[in-house]
Amino acid sequence: MNFFEANFDGLVGPTHNYAGLSVGNVASLSNAKNSSSPRQAAKQGLSKMKALHDLGMVQGVLAPQERPDVYTLRRLGFTGTDAQVIAKAAKQAPAVLRAVCSASSMWTANAATISPSADTHDGKVHFTPANLTNKFHRSLEPVTTGRILQAMFRDPAHFAHHTHLPDNDHFGDEGAANHTRLCSAYGKRGVELFVFGRYAFDSSQPAPKRFPARHTLEACEAVARLHGLSGEHVVYMQQNPDVIDQGVFHNDVIAVGNQNVLFYHQQAFVDTQNKLNELRRKFGNETDLHLIEVKDSDVSVSEAIKTYLFNTQVITLPSGEMAIIAPTECQESHAVSSYLAALVQQHTPIRHVHYYDVKQSMRNGGGPACLRLRVALSEQEKQAVNPNVLMNDALFSTLNQWVDKHYRDQISEADLADPQLLDESRSALDELTQILGLGSVYQFQQV
Question: Is 330 one of the annotated active-site residues of the chain?
Fold first, then answer.
């Protein structure tokens, strides 16, 4: 049976803005309060999706969240009509309004953790939405994310869906941004690598001092239990606290893996050699495992963060060769572009680099890897996926027309207080659920 990895990219929402909400994310903070272009952002994302589809990859679309989130504003004591609720929040708590307008669900690497059927106890693909408790604006996502994933992966014969972990920082879960699966082939049992920032119940262990460690070991262990993973095929690695304090808020800013390749920075992890030895042992055939370490002398941590060298996608092309999907910021950096040019000449599976413009996302702190959720599937499992969410020429054209119809060209911070923005967003999402065949996944559709 044929197995492959599908990428489901987050469709940028109509309220895409630069509010600088993500402490610890250097790009997000440095572009705070600049004007954004939701239309351009959505089209850049769609162009990347179409490009991967054209490369022969299975590419899907994951719908955005409803924003502004007036339901949360009501929970926080703002009353009246929707327009009055937004007006009161803008006047009394503008920081809260900015948070409930966030389009951060575009970064679907944080949507969930997925384990493929080859790894799980019951032979199903398992999904656990991330609770994202560390950031208020992202903690609003998991319930709707769960609904959207269930509307995409409906068939209980193939797919198992779990409720997100308890909404508490002890079980802070940032999803697939801190999860990598290594395997000899997508259809064979692999090693699932869970990366965490801190121990929730042991304060004596190392932890960052400047920026928060968002993901806990305990959350990793809980997801592994929920998915029925074998302990002999799981590795837990701690992210280096020093790089978190430099702005590496997720592991996918400092390391990325695909099949038998782990591409990582010299400073990425704690106890690196012992953990890599464990990874080699559990992987099995060590000669087939490629551990590509980028030295400080080649690319510094600061340059890796600036260009998102590791927030690239490493994909396996239909030819069997691997390619890196990188933002144009990598191409514009002499150190990074030189490194990548040399990398594809070395004896590793990575033979190609493709550059794409996702600047609207990059300025808010998310590169190509942030924008996609990876799901390894068999051909039979793919047939059970909601077909309306899979990219093709017709869907690409339809979604571009949908963006042109509904999205503003620019949004500033002041625009978030415009009650018309909520009406525009709801109108867009209502039409989108029909295009993607999702049903009534949004709260406003269920009233």
Answer: no
Alpha helices by DSSP H, 227-355: 241-244, 272-283, 301-307, 328-332, 334-343
- Domain that includes residue 287, residue range: 3-67+102-445
Specify the DSSP class assigned to residue 40. H
Place of tokens 């082939």: 185
Q: What is the pLDDT of residues 227-265, one digit of tens each?
A: 999 999 999 999 999 999 999 999 999 999 999 999 999
Active site residue 379: no
Q: Which of 16, 66, 370, 406 is catalytic?
A: 370
Ordered strands of the 159-161 beta sheet: 112-115, 125-129, 159-161
Q: Please give the tally of structural domains in the chain.
A: 1
Residue of 173, 175, 179, 254 lying closest to 216 (CA atoms) = 173
pTM recorded for the entire structure: 0.95
In which region does residue 437 sit, left (phi positive, over 0), alpha (psi from -120 to 50) or beta (all else)?
A: left
For residue 64, count CB atoms less than 10 angstroms from its CB and return exposed for 0-12, middle for 13-18, buried for 19 or more: buried
Is 332 tagged catalytic?
no
Is residue 82, in this structure, part of any structural domain at all?
no
